[in-house]
Amino acid sequence: MPWIKMIPPQHATDELRRVYNEIYDLYPGEYKKSVPALMNPDGSEDSITAAHSLIPEAMRHIMSAYGVLLQPDLPLTRRQHELIASVVSLQNHCFY
What we know:
The chain has one domain. The protein has 3 helices and no strands. The N and C termini lie close together (8 Å). The chain has helices spanning 14-26, 56-69, 78-91. 43% of the residues lie in helices and 0% in strands.
């Protein structure tokens, strides 16, 4: 997880919570489920979306574009999305 301050949805202001909801509404259902491997001992969850939470308008634009790219009517499957993310993360020496 990034070593930057993040504001998770449960601690967000009304404005930031609205942005989270707008973004999450774009994600296909299978992406909305928690992933046990990303759960922290304190019950929080690692989130690439939350890594953008200090600038809500930037988060809205960046993560909304991502949400649109995940749409199931596009040619890539979730497995392909995950494979691409894994290869990029490996190349960047990143946990993701």
